């Protein structure tokens, strides 16, 4: 206000001075013009009149001189007045900046402080003089952002400011930076964020199975322990919990408390494992967190999505979505045995109805494609470098579907796979043609074709990305833990991490189809080979269902001797496997082996070496890496105490608890460094 009023007053005085000077100039011009007229008149007059005119001319000249003198004096006075007013204005501006109610500074082209006001001296840099000090040393400020219209937000002495900069001269040598205090708004916004309510859904894994064979007293004890566990989870918070069923809880918690639970990596998961049912089985939880929704409804939807991922990955873990991506905590326990066959039976009936509508009476209203006539062609595809489980499960399913649809084939790369003995065995003993190349499968794909993907749900690992990209009707059957960005969209899916193998799931599906299809002896042997591969001859990840499906295949005529021959290797592969084992060393109870050599059966040798390294005393996990075509491949195995899936996921891969893998675009030494860091991170996060 002072600065503006002073400027207005100065302008008024200057305007009055200029008007006075203009009047004097006008009078002088008028007198000169009058003298000129008198002189002209005297030239044509008598001598007497001439004398009188001379007097008038003299008087006019004197008046002109006086007027000119007055104009000169008035002009100098005008300059002094302007200088005085300008000085008053400059002083007002300096005083206004000096006492400006916010920190304000002037910097040069090198961001050195040339001047600052009292507010800056008092609240920002009170200890010593700031003249000549670089602004970039005092605070973390982005000058490019500060010169923008929105400015740059910074924190100074526990206060929040928006720093805005403007140039003060045409050469941009000096700039003024002022700091707008937005502390109240920032704290209000932060408090609103911290008060945001999130929805947490906590589910007890396989609660009905846990309680099925327990005494009533044991059931009551477990229920009480779980209630106490929930009470401890809510201690020190303002959250509320609602028990919606015997095995499900809803928790509504503010962000300020949820962030602490995330920092503690959901300690409730570890505490739940300490609860035993009948002194044998541990209780595990699956926790889905919805925190990014605009309201409770959206948060609940996100929590259900996160919970589905947890259960698809085997349970005993928590999933939190942050910045559009999921973070997982826990997951150190084996997935529950797949002994509840209700879900498999429903999927088996659904898949049969998709392929041939009307074949299942209970699903007669279900229609699979646009015309509701089912599919005439089915293509079955596994993952790249297919093994006995991938190609074996695809072969068994193809044999069963050949009795239902006119055309059914397995898409496989005949040169790049790990089950060449199986393919040769089927082609030698079966009349029907089972296998086609990815190029042939691509040509057969149309709107009347159903694509079934087995033993993977990762779109980056399928046998043919071209087929998966254009296929409109896709079904997935997989036993790996669910990943976030799986194949989509799907007509139906069967993702069961509790199953030992994809071959086990396919065998269960075929068993439920009963007399509506047939399974040949050689196809049954292919399925049994897949089960034996992933269970390491019924040692790893073997449940009740695994033996039941193996018994079913045995009833179908599967010969274990013929299956064993499918695992035979050449002497060269055996030597290469031995060389890999000899290169191993132990790091934090993990055996790590590597080779920079490349040979035809390197994948088989690496996977078998990883299996055998688990036989070393004190080794909980094994990692075998090899380089091929500029890519380092890592095969990981464990006995169940170490979750290799989490380690491989940290390196961009995946799998499940006892078997996982990844690929890295790097060198062997760099891959070893990345692997050891991932192992360190896993052990640090899962140390009790």
Explain what this protein looks like in three dimensions.
With 688 residues, the chain is an alpha/beta fold. It is built from 24 helices and 25 strands. A six-stranded mixed β-sheet has the order 7-8-6-11-12-13. The radius of gyration is 43 Å and the shape is elongated. The relative contact order is 0.05. Mean pLDDT is 82; it is low at 1-17 and 362-367.
Task: Walk me through the topology.
Layout: H1 2-42, H2 47-98, E1 104-108, E2 113-116, H3 118-123, H4 135-138, H5 143-146, E3 152-156, E4 159-167, E5 174-181, H6 183-194, E6 197-204, H7 207-212, H8 216-234, E7 240-245, E8 248-254, H9 255-263, H10 267-273, E9 276-277, E10 281-282, E11 285-290, H11 296-312, E12 317-322, E13 325-330, H12 342-355, E14 377-381, H13 388-401, E15 407-411, H14 420-429, E16 435-436, H15 438-444, E17 449-454, H16 465-470, E18 474-478, E19 492-495, H17 502-513, H18 521-535, H19 544-555, H20 560-565, H21 571-582, E20 585-587, E21 590-595, H22 602-613, E22 621-628, E23 631-638, H23 644-650, E24 654-656, E25 659-664, H24 668-686
Helix pairs in contact: 1-2, 12-17, 13-17, 13-18, 17-18, 17-19, 18-19, 21-22, 23-24
